[in-house]
Request: fold
Amino acid sequence: MNRATRIVVTVMAVVFALSGILHGYYETLQGNTPTDGLMIAAVGEAFLHWEEGQEPALTIIPNFLITGLAAITVSVAIIIWAVGFLHTQHGATIMLLLFLISFFVGAGVAQIIFFPMLWGLAVNINRPLAWWRRRLPAGSRRVLARLWPWAITAGALLMLITLEISFFGLFPGVTDPQALLGLMGLCLLLALILFPLSFVGAIAADLQRADQQADSPIPVTA
Reply:
C-alpha cells in the first residue's frame, strides 16, 4: 500500500467533510422549512456572521432541516470511510460517490473542483505507480518526497482558514470585508497550489519507499 498517498487523500477528504458538516449544521438551524429551489444559502439571514457568509449550496431535498441532517450524515460517513476504508478494493470509488452525494444534499459546492483530483490520487493507493515512475526522475523524486508532509499540512491549514473566513468573517487584525475576501481568495489559491504539490510529493515518497524495499536484502530463514 502507498502510505503517503493514502495520508494525503485522507487529510483532504476529512477537511472537505468538515466543510460539509458545517454547511449541514447551519442548514439545520433554519429548521423544518422549505427551500426555495435547488440552490440555497446554507447560512440563513438570522445566523449570518458577516455579509458574505451565506455559503451557497445545492440540494435536491426541499427542506432545510432534512438537507442539513443529510449533509452532516454523509460528511461523517466520508470521514469514517477516508480514515478506515479508503485502502480497500473499491475505496476510491465509494469515496467519490459519497462526495457526489454530499454535493447534492447541501454540503457545499466549491469543493467539487477537488473531487476528481482526490479520486485520481486515491486510485493509486494500491497500485505500483509505474506511470509515475516513468515521469518522475529519481532526482526530483528525492526532493518532492521531502516536501509532501509540509505541503499537505500547509494546504489543509490554509483550506481551514478559508473555511473559517467564509463562514465567520474573522481573521486576526482584519475587519474590512473586502480585505477578508481578498485574504480568503489568497488562502484558497495557495491551497490549490499546495494540494497538487502534496499529491505529487506523496507519490514520489511512495516510489522512494518501494525502491528502498526492493533494495533491502530478503531475510533467509533456516
Summary: The helical segments are 3-29, 64-84, 91-104, 115-122, 130-135, 138-168, 177-215.
